Amino acid sequence: MTSVILLAAEKRSAEVTDWAARIGWVVGLALFVALVYWLMREGWKWRGTLQSDLPGLPTTPDDPGPAKLSARGRYHGSTTAGQWLDRIVAHGLGTRSRVELTLTDAGLDVVRPGAGDFFVPADALRGARLDKGIAGKVLTEGGLLVVTWAHGERLIDSGFRFDHAADHNEWVPAIDSMSKTNVTTEGAER
After folding, report:
1. CA angle 188-189-190, nearest 5°?
2. What residue ranges do the domains of the chain occupy?
3. Per-position b or e across 76-85, b if 16+ CB within 10 A of its CB
4. CATH number of 67-189
5. C-alpha span between 116 and 97 (Å, rounded)
6. How deeply is 98 buried, as exposed, middle or buried, from its count of CB atoms within 10 A (0-12, 13-18, 19+)?
């Protein structure tokens, strides 16, 4: 009997959770996440301020002509040409969205539901290529259509991924032929 009493005396109850410390850690973590999010947002806004020299984006003309090609997919953003990590955020060019692209003799019409639409005039097109990545998005080799175009004094690469990736192949020669025609025409005028 004395052994049972000794065993009962030696047993302790489980430690009680220190709720104040646990709540303190959760609140501290939430504040840290909020601070990181705020800093990222301020960085995005600062990048837009630095790119404020970029002129406003052209809009679609009243009569762009018949469509040569059209496709639907995703717009993944725009960067400074040749620098696939230098994202351009001014005028909403950094906002990812769904996209409907239409190529006409007048240029490239980029319709983005939920984001700002823009138009790339035919004389601003500089070429197209299949690539694997653009700022914040990396795909398989050739999984992204990158269109290079001039805007103001800056060359811009814009990345698109169509719902049917096989459609990318017909866009590259179509845009390249338009950009070569523009270069030939500009050279003949001089």
Report:
1. 95
2. 19-50, 67-189
3. bbbbbbeebe
4. 2.30.29.30
5. 10
6. middle
Q: What would the DSSP string read from start to end of 65-134?
A: -SEEEEEEEEEEEEEETT-TT-EE-GGGTT--EEEEEEEETTEEEEE-TTS--EEEEGGGEEEEEEESEE
The total number of residues written for the chain in this structure: 190
CA dihedral over 53, 152, 62, 118, signed as positive or negative: negative
* Single-letter residue type at 97: S
Instruction: Quote the CA–CA distance of 74 and 180 in Å, as a whole number.
Output: 26
Nearest to 73 by CA among 111, 116, 103, 30: 111
State the Cα–Cα distance between residues 133 and 174, nearest whole angstrom: 21
pLDDT digits (tens, 9 = 90+) for 122-181: 888 998 988 887 777 777 677 888 999 888 888 889 988 888 877 888 898 888 888 765
Contact between 181 and 168 (Cβ < 8 Å): no
Burial class (CB in 10 A: 0-12, 13-18, 19+), 48: middle
Residue 64's nearest CA partner among 122, 119, 117, 106 is 106
The reported pTM is 0.71
Token reading at 59: 């809009």
Pairing between β-strand 67-80 and β-strand 144-151 as defined by DSSP bridges: unpaired
